[in-house]
TrEMBL record:
CDD domains: TilS_N. It comes from Micromonospora peucetia. It catalyses: cytidine(34) in tRNA(Ile2) + L-lysine + ATP = lysidine(34) in tRNA(Ile2) + AMP + diphosphate + H(+). This is tRNA(Ile)-lysidine synthase. The lineage of its organism: Bacteria, Bacillati, Actinomycetota, Actinomycetes, Micromonosporales. PANTHER family: TRNA(ILE)-LYSIDINE SYNTHASE-RELATED.
Amino acid sequence: MAALAPPVAAIRVAVRRALIDLPPGGPVLVACSGGADSLALAAATAFVAPRLGRAAGLVTVDHGLQEGSAQRAAAVVRWAREVGLAPVESVRVEVAGRPGGPEAAAREARYRALADVAARLGAAALLTGHTRDDQAETVLLALARGAGPRGLAGMPVRRDLDGVPLLRPLLEVGREQTRTACAVLGLSPWEDPHNADPSYARARVRADVLPALVRALGPGVLDNLARTARLVAADNAVLDELAGAALADVRHPDGGLAVRALADLPPAVRGRVLHAWARELGAPPAALSHRHVTALDALVTGWRGQGPAHLPGGLRVLRRDGRLAAIDFR
Ligand SMILES: Nc1ncnc2c1ncn2[C@@H]1O[C@H](COP(=O)(O)OP(=O)(O)OP(=O)(O)O)[C@@H](O)[C@H]1O
């Protein structure tokens, strides 16, 4: 028997590691665009899942934004059926009319559709093809925009998507490995024109910044950026836990948060408490920024009798009687 190409083996090992601890139950579903990353992931999952006694299916989303998008989706579906993935679904989403830029709107519509399909099929998990290189780009972009630890932690290897675990098995696999795996397996991945479109910051980081960093600092840069994300994520988990306990402690019996107790917290914990409380009040997480948390913090540590802090979602928070209290203007 011919030796298995190292990238194919590495991707299968990564998928096995992600699936092995899932509780028994429904199929795992690969979210596949037809690009090299998710195609290599789908091929590996089709191989690994049955050997773990589990069904593996695939879902592809047609955003209807590019010419030929329906044909791309149909080609992915045909291939998936040929390699024995089941169930296989193609979902068409409507992106126009959603808030935010076109990229954000497409992502939001895609995750909504993926969550719906996963719930309808009783999926045990949804798998995406994000790689170490996507993670390195995410960390660099976060650094460049001055993000805090939440941004620097990059993408989690596992998170909840409306009750279904979303897994990223390839977060430690290099993009060149998914390309090579596809070539070895005779697969022809789709090239997303957005990935090379210099009007997107991520595409510029991918095409120019990371290659320049690798030339200047050596090939370990990509692994190192991904490692930074893992290290920061581990610290975040502890700080989030501390903040959860602190939030319970600073709640005032009559509602709101006690200012004096908040002021006694270390700043790193207080910021998280205020962030968590704002989310609890109904501020949409995607719109909640450092600026909003700073405005809340100023009511605690920079009090000069100022007016309310404004939060996204039409919420205002003011300081009164030694407490932070929310007013809902929605
Ligand atoms: N149209 C789509 N349908 C289903 N899943 C998708 C679609 N687009 C993206 N995904 C999922 O999200 C992951 C990240 O997509 P993104 O476009 O950000 O990265 P990418 O590096 O171009 O990935 P790929 O090479 O797999 O397209 C993909 O690997 C795939 O799992």
